[in-house]
Each structure stands twice: as structure tokens, then as C-alpha cells.
Amino acid sequence: MICKQSKEGCVVLNIKILLHTCCGPCGVAFTGGIIKEGFAPVLLWHNPNIHPFTEYKSRRGAALDFAALYQLPMEADDFYGLRKFVGDVAADGDRRARCAYCYHARLAHTAKYAAQNGYTAFSTTLLASPYQDFEAICKFGRELAEMYGCEFVIRDFREGFRAAMDEARKMGLYMQKYCGCIFSEEERYRKFF
Ligand code: SF4
């Protein structure tokens, strides 16, 4: 990593990084942190794991709102991936396997896009969420970095997640109530019925 020394330690010199963005709150938690370090993130929206369609649109809208508020460029596809996602994970209802597929699919798309479009680094705002499997995300990120020759930037901003949620609320961003896939929606609400 290219960096210069300052009183605060190592400051990254304007590295263009492709940052996979999953939602507004995680975006606030992660993006603010890496900007302070000197990264210049370009956001990437690619989340075929978010269902149903209205929820997908709300979260995509929140990511776009977040990008506009932070004045950051964003690459945003508009692929609602319910059918492929369900088809790919249906054989294995186990949550660990499902989430592993989910992390890997999104990170693989990000790493490939980064390598093909001149980025030297990539990462994901998923790392900022205490609800996600930090170690699994890091493992996949490192493997994909090796495969695509593009650095995977790991930062742990989970301590600041609650404050970031408050900030996102103040900014008027959409706040989701469950992780994302149609299975997690059932897990979130089943206890009420
Ligand atoms: S629970 Fe969350 S991380 Fe796991 S598969 Fe569903 S959307 Fe992906």
C-alpha cells in the first residue's frame, strides 16, 4: 500500500478504490473511515441478494442517496437477482452456506469489475456491519485479490456502526429491517406470527 507518514501514522495517497456498497448505514460507517485515511472511493452497487423487489429498490435508492450526499461517484447496476439467487442457494438451506455464497458472489463481481476497470484496490462496506461474518468476508476478499491481482482493503469499523446508524437516520436514508435475502426476511419476522 502506498502511503506517507504523518503524525497520525500512515496516510494513504489518494488510492482509487472500488467500494462495494450494500446499504446506507454500512456506507456511512465504512466510507467515512477510509476517506479519512486518504482513499478516493468509487462506490459500486451490486446486490442481487436483496429481496423482495420493493426492498431492493428502497436499498438501491438509499445507496444512491448516500453517494449523492457524500458527492461520491457510483457505479450502479440494476439487477434484481431473486431467481438466480434462490436457484443457486435453494439446494442448501443452511444459513452458513447461503451467506458464504452471498458474500462470495458480490465480492467476486466487485473484484472482477475492479481488475477490468483500472482499480488497484477493492473492498466492501459489509465489513462495517456487526451482523455479518467479518472473517468469512476477509477470507473471500483475500482469495479474490490473489485471483484478480487487485488489493483487498480490510478495515474494521464495526465499533462505530451504531453511531453510523444514527448518522444515516439523520441524513434521512432508508433503514432496512433485515439482512437482505428472502430467507432472512422470514427469519426476521417469523417470531411475530
Ligand atoms: S442472510 Fe444476509 S448475508 Fe446471508 S444470504 Fe441472506 S442476505 Fe446474504
Descriptors:
193 residues; alpha/beta; Rossmann fold; five-stranded parallel beta sheet; two-stranded antiparallel sheet; 7 helices; globular; binds iron/sulfur cluster
Description of the structure:
- With 193 residues, this protein is of the alpha/beta class.
- It has one domain (13-192): Rossmann fold (3-Layer(aba) Sandwich).
- Helices cover 49% and strands 15% of the residues.
- The protein has helices at 24-37, 53-69, 82-89, 95-116, 134-148, 161-170, 182-189; strands at 3-6, 9-12, 16-20, 40-45, 74-76, 121-124, 151-152.
- The strands form 2 sheets. A 5-stranded parallel beta sheet has the order 5-4-3-6-7, sandwiched between helices.
- Helix 1 packs across helix 6 (161-170).
- It is globular and about 50 Å long.
- Bound molecules: iron/sulfur cluster.
- Iron/sulfur cluster is lined by residues 49, 98-99, 102, 179-181, 183-184.
In short:
The chain has 193 residues and is of the alpha/beta class.
Compounds present? Answer: iron/sulfur cluster
Element order, helices and strands? Answer: EEEHEHEHHEHEHH
Radius of gyration using CA atoms only: 16 Å
Unreliable spans are: none
Widest sheet, order of strands: 5-4-3-6-7
Structural class of the secondary elements? alpha/beta
pLDDT averaged over residues: 92
Number of domains: 1
Q: Assign the CATH class.
A: Alpha Beta
Binned strand content? 5-15%
Distance, first to last CA: 51 Å
The fourth-level CATH homologous superfamily is HUPs
The helix content is: 40-55%
In the CATH hierarchy, what is the architecture at level 2?
A: 3-Layer(aba) Sandwich
Q: What is the strand tally?
A: 7
- Helix segment tally: 7
Described by strand count, sense and barrel closure, the largest sheet is: 5 strands, parallel
User: Rough shape?
Assistant: globular
Q: What name does the CATH topology carry?
A: Rossmann fold
